[in-house]
Amino acid sequence: MASLGGIDGTRYTAPPLARFFHKLPHLNISLHLVNSTFAPDSEIYLESLGILGSLPAAWLILTLFLLLVYLLTRCCDRKPRPKHSIVILKWTLSFFTVLCCAAVGVGLYGNDDVHNGVLELLTAARSIDDIIGNVKNQTGAIDSTLKLKVTPLLTELGDVFDDPVANQTARAMLLAALAAMTGNTSAAHNSLQDIMRPLRGVSLSNTITALHIAEAIRWPVTMAVLSILLVFCVVLLVGVARHSRCALITFSVFGLFAVIISWLLASIYLTASVALGDLCNNPNSFVE
C-alpha cells in the first residue's frame, strides 16, 4: 500500500525517488527475490540490504583490479611515448577531472539538501513527540480527576439518595440520572484507557536523539570528504596544466584513498537510501 488516508481526506503518496529505490530488486544470498517491505527486525530483509550495499564495494574491487593490471602493464612497458599520445592523455584527464568536479558539486548540493530534509524531519518528529506527551498528560489528568474527584462524589450522591424521601418519583428520576452519570464515568474511564494503553510505550526521544547525533556526524564528514575530493581534482588539473610530476604523484597516491572512501560511502548511502525508500513507500506496516 503506497498511499495512506489523511484526516482531511488527502492521501499520502511516496516521492518518486523513494519509489525508485523501493523498486530495486531485493535479493537474498541465493539470489531469490524477497519481500521489499521495510522490516528492520527481519534477517532476510537486512540480508537483501547488505547485498545491495555490496554492489558499490564489488565495483570498487573491480576498479582496483583494473588499476593493478594497468600499473603492471605500465611498469613492464619501457617504450618511449610520442608526444601526441601524451597530449591526448592530458585532454582526457582534464575532461574527466572537470566531470568529477561537477559530480562533487552535485554531491555537495545533495548533501546540503539532505541535511535540510533531516532537520525538517527532526522538527516534525519533535512536534509529534510533544503531541504524544501532551495527550499522555491530558488523558492522565482526566483519568485522575475521574478517579479521585468524580467517582467519590457520585458515591456520596448515591448514599444521599439511599435515604428515605417522600417524593419517590423525584427520587427515581435522580437515581436514573445518577446511574447515567456513573455509566458515563465508567465509559469515559474505559475510553481513556483505550487511548493511554497504546501510548504507554511510545516515545520518540531516543530515536530523535540518535538521529540528531548521526546527522551531526554525517553532514560534516560527507562535506569534508567531498571537499577533499574537490581539492584532489584541483591538484590533478594543476599537475596536468603545469606538467608537475609532484602534483601528479600526489594525486595518484591520495586519489587512490579517495576512490576507496568514495565507493565505501556509496555503499552506505545506497543501503540507507533503499531502506528509506522502502519505509516511505509503505510506512503503515512499520508504524503499526
UniProtKB/TrEMBL annotation:
<comment type="function">
    <text>Probable chloride channel.</text>
</comment>
<keyword id="KW-0325">Glycoprotein</keyword>
<dbReference type="GO" id="GO:0072320">
    <property type="term" value="F:volume-sensitive chloride channel activity"/>
</dbReference>
<keyword id="KW-0406">Ion transport</keyword>
<dbReference type="GO" id="GO:0034707">
    <property type="term" value="C:chloride channel complex"/>
</dbReference>
<protein>
    <recommendedName>
        <fullName>Protein tweety homolog</fullName>
    </recommendedName>
</protein>
<dbReference type="GO" id="GO:0005229">
    <property type="term" value="F:intracellularly calcium-gated chloride channel activity"/>
</dbReference>
<keyword id="KW-0813">Transport</keyword>
<keyword id="KW-1133">Transmembrane helix</keyword>
<dbReference type="GO" id="GO:0005886">
    <property type="term" value="C:plasma membrane"/>
</dbReference>
<keyword id="KW-0869">Chloride channel</keyword>
<keyword id="KW-0407">Ion channel</keyword>
<feature type="transmembrane region" description="Helical">
    <location>
        <begin position="85"/>
        <end position="109"/>
    </location>
</feature>
<dbReference type="Pfam" id="PF04906">
    <property type="entry name" value="Tweety"/>
</dbReference>
<comment type="similarity">
    <text>Belongs to the tweety family.</text>
</comment>
<keyword id="KW-0812">Transmembrane</keyword>
<keyword id="KW-1003">Cell membrane</keyword>
<keyword id="KW-0868">Chloride</keyword>
<keyword id="KW-0472">Membrane</keyword>
<feature type="transmembrane region" description="Helical">
    <location>
        <begin position="248"/>
        <end position="269"/>
    </location>
</feature>
<feature type="transmembrane region" description="Helical">
    <location>
        <begin position="51"/>
        <end position="73"/>
    </location>
</feature>
<dbReference type="InterPro" id="IPR006990">
    <property type="entry name" value="Tweety"/>
</dbReference>
<feature type="transmembrane region" description="Helical">
    <location>
        <begin position="221"/>
        <end position="241"/>
    </location>
</feature>
